[in-house]
Amino acid sequence: MSKLKDSGIYCVGTIRKNRVENCILEDDKKLKELPRGVYDYRCEGKTGIKIVKWFGSKAVLLVSSFTGIEPVTTVKRWNSAEKRKVDVPCPAIIRTYNKPMGRVDLMDMLIEQLYRTPMKTRRWYIKIFFHLVDLCIVNGWLLYRRHAVQHDLPSNQMVPLREFRTQVAAGLLQADHTPRLAGRPVVERRRIRRPRQARPVDEVRFDGLNYWPEHVQKRGRCKLCTTGFSRVMCEKCGLYLCFNPKNNCFKHFYARRV
Fold first, then answer.
1. Looking at residue 51, what is its pLDDT?
2. What's the average model confidence in pLDDT over 40-67?
3. Among 3, 52, 63, 117, which is least packed by CB within 10 angstroms?
4. Average pLDDT for residues 157-177, to the nearest whole number?
5. Which of 160, 103, 181 is nearest to 135 (CA)?
6. Nearest to residue 241, comparing CAs of 178, 197, 204?
């Protein structure tokens, strides 16, 4: 923490007792006998780093390089003896530490507990990479929800996190990639035609790249009008679309509606 402060980076966080063995603070048993919300603190003279022990429900040890006990405010805590919430003294370092913790805990819950990318590998850096991917997806979903609220979109119409992850995966799989300029030649793989083909996500459908009609021998039902049959298939998405003098579903399917 001293090195970070010398670099202009100020921080606050919890610390274990064995990390500050030379800093003598009040014992937990004595603090427990005193009124709830009591605290004890020490300040290092050279660097100004402060260590605070606060007893709320239990003893908590925090260290900070920019904040301390002042100003002391009050917080609401449940009192089991009185069966109600009471005011408990709270140093400034506790409020500063708790302010962003809800966001960090929410991020950990969305990544660790809900839809974490399963990955078993002995290479530790692979796990870090996929953790960063999960972090970007969750941040993108939170930004999407913020913008949806700003545009007064009802909550029941918002895309849930699971579907959002699916759309991101589909967009990455179907998006066009820049061809290699050097190295091994790219060998074109034979595509496996499936009887049922899902529609591409909007980010891929309306990107306007490499949507070429291809005439095939086997005809299929048009993906747009669903009434006609066509022998014209999109080379990129593998969808059957009408492309004749009467119906041009191929054009209307990939034209973005304003």
1. 92
2. 88
3. 3
4. 84
5. 103
6. 197
Burial of 24 (0-12, 13-18, 19+ CB in 10 A): exposed
Structural domain boundaries of the chain? 2-99, 102-173, 210-254
Q: Which residues contact 20 (CB under 8 A, 6 or more apart)?
A: 51, 61, 63
Predicted TM-score (pTM) of the model is: 0.47
Q: Which pLDDT does position 147 carry in this prediction?
A: 92
